[in-house]
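hiii so um. not sure if this is the right channel but i have a protein structure encoded as tokens and i wanna go backwards to a sequence. like what aa goes where. can anyone help
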């Protein structure tokens, strides 16, 4: 029974190692082939590559302009002149309210203006006549004063009538609800024949499409660190890219154009905003996206394939084939990872050959037959 348990344990370790779920630690490598066997391995050289520093955040798309259309007067909705979800241009007629009563009110206001103008003309004439008679002392001064008051009152009445006419013109203009901005219009809340007024709520919403903003919270520490790094490197700014819901990378990069002047006291984060082109309307107002913020200039870093990395309780390590074609364990300190490669901060040097295939067949100090892996993609 004891022998069966030993064979079962070995079989389990081999299966886990083949699946990449079992890390081959130095003490576990004692189960590798005997020293005389020289297993074949594939190696790749540690090399200096361009590495762009990145940070990821969760952000939300915001339209630069967003307008909620509302009725400013009370009346019956006569027509809707747009297709829901379509693009509209600034100045396009979208809704119209029956104008009959407002046209009548405007006609009445115009008649009041004409009446006030006639009254003012008569009062002005009476005042001029009174002043001429006053020069010859043919009229009492009190009469002249009365004519002055009448003329002033008529002038005030004309101003009031013109103001009423202007209000009537505005009310008639409000029967035509036009697009104040260009953008995509949403669903209409009401159909023709409904009575609308300022309390009816939003009739439809227009959001601009290109460009858009993306807002995302950044910790105060990260923001300060990014600002210092940008000043030290002389970079003009950080590049912003978006990762969409399906994992794909949005084609149009953007730039940060605003950071809030206040931090959230509960989370110690600052809302940062980026501006991105949206020529194909792929980004939608309110959409959640992953925001990838990266430096404008890549840095040089020592990179190795991630396939060479192993992990045990002591941390990460790789197998390096030395000048005598023997496999040696090297503990490594890792940095950022990009496109199947990992940056190494300490533990190996440029040009070192790390094992990327055949790791499970090797133990430390054992001679190996090393074959160079084909060059990987540059990134």
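sure thing!! here u go:
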């Amino acid at each position: 029974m004891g022998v069966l348990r030993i064979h079962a344990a070995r079989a389990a370790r081999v299966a886990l190692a083949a699946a990449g779920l079992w890390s081959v630690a130095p003490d576990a490598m004692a189960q590798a082939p005997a020293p005389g066997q020289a297993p074949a391995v594939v190696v790749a050289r540690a090399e200096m590559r361009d590495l762009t520093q990145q940070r990821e955040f969760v952000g939300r798309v915001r339209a630069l302009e967003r307008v909620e259309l509302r009725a400013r007067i009370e009346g019956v909705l006569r027509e809707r002149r747009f297709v829901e979800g379509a693009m509209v241009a600034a100045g396009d007629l979208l809704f119209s309210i029956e104008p009959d009563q407002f046209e009548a009110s405007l006609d009445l206001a115009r008649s009041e203006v004409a009446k006030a103008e006639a009254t003012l003309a008569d009062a002005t004439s009476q005042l001029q006549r009174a002043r001429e008679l006053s020069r010859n002392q043919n009229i009492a001064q009190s009469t002249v004063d009365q004519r002055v008051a009448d003329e002033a009152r008529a002038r005030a009445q004309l101003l009031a009538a013109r103001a009423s006419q202007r209000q009537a013109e505005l009310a008639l203009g409000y029967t035509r609800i036009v697009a104040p901005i260009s953008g995509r219009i949403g669903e209409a809340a009401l159909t023709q024949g409904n009575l609308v007024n300022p309390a009816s709520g939003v009739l439809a919403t227009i959001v601009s499409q290109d460009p858009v903003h993306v807002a995302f919270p950044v910790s105060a520490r990260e923001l300060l660190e990014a600002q210092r790094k940008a000043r030290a490197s002389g970079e003009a700014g950080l590049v912003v890219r978006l990762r969409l819901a399906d994992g794909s990378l949005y084609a149009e990069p953007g730039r940060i154009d605003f950071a809030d002047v206040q931090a959230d006291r509960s989370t110690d984060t600052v809302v940062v905003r980026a501006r991105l082109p949206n020529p194909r309307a792929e980004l939608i107002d309110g959409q959640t996206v992953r925001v990838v913020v990266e430096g404008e200039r890549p840095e040089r870093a020592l990179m190795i394939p991630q396939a060479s990395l192993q992990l045990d309780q002591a941390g990460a390590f790789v197998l390096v084939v030395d000048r005598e074609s023997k496999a040696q364990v090297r503990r490594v300190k890792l940095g950022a990872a990009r496109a199947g490669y990992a940056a190494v901060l300490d533990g190996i040097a440029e040009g070192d050959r790390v094992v990327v295939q055949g790791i499970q067949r090797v133990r430390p100090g054992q001679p190996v037959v090393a074959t160079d892996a084909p060059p990987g993609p540059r990134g």
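oh and The CA atoms of residues 123 and 151 lie 5 Å apart.
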